[in-house]
Amino acid sequence: MVANIDRRYWMAALILILLMAFFAGLKYGDHKNKDIDGESIVTANPAGEREAPEVSEVKVYICGEVENPGVYKLKDGARVYDALMMAGILPAADLKTVQPARKLQDGETIELLAEGESDVNSSADKPSLPGRPPTIASPAGTGLVNINTASAQELDGLPGIGPALAQRIIDYRTANGPFATIDDINNVSGIGEKKFAALKDLITVR
């Protein structure tokens, strides 16, 4: 009788020990999973720290009716007007052609046109009207426009030259005499580096 009681006692004790070991294992596994989750969260943070910082400055190219055309560096969020002030705005400039209150974009080019030239770029690309082929004054066989003899309409046919600028070219040569070289056209207000680069292979002074 006593032996049976001892046997049941030891069996119950063994079962209790096994249950305790089982629950202890469950608790340890749950704790380890939490540690792994915590490590994954911690290791995720350094990756975020390596993200590229936001651009704090922009670089833009300013040309046209400015005193000092070139590349300028400004703080991110600066306006077109800020860049133009750095380059120096010429009296003949028309600010309405560049949206002065607009925020600058990194790498963009801003060309400030003269008053009366807001349609210059579009007129250079628009097709000729039916029945009105483009006319260009040029010496026979050269295909070049003679800026000393071309009419306002003929000058208007050149890329980047609108009606207002064509008239200024004529007014300049009337007041100062014929152009000695094609480089002299740079003396006309509204002819900047970019326009002259597009014109120099198309004009002559013969």
Automatic annotation (TrEMBL):
Pfam families: HHH_3, SLBB
SUPFAM superfamilies: RuvA domain 2-like
GO function terms (MF aspect): DNA binding
Example of a GO cellular component annotation carried by this entry: type II protein secretion system complex
Residues annotated as domain Helix-hairpin-helix DNA-binding motif class: 153-172, 183-202
UniProt xrefs under InterPro entries: Competence_ComEA_HhH, Endo/Exo/Phosphatase_dom_1, Hlx-hairpin-Hlx_DNA-bd_motif, RuvA_2-like, Soluble_ligand-bd
Protein name in the entry: Competence protein ComEA, helix-hairpin-helix domain
Region (Disordered): 114-133
Lineage, highest ranks first: Bacteria, Bacillati, Bacillota, Clostridia, Eubacteriales
GO process annotations (BP): DNA repair; protein secretion by the type II secretion system
Gene3D superfamilies referenced in this protein's UniProt entry, alphabetically: Outer membrane lipoprotein wza domain like, Photosystem II 12 kDa extrinsic protein
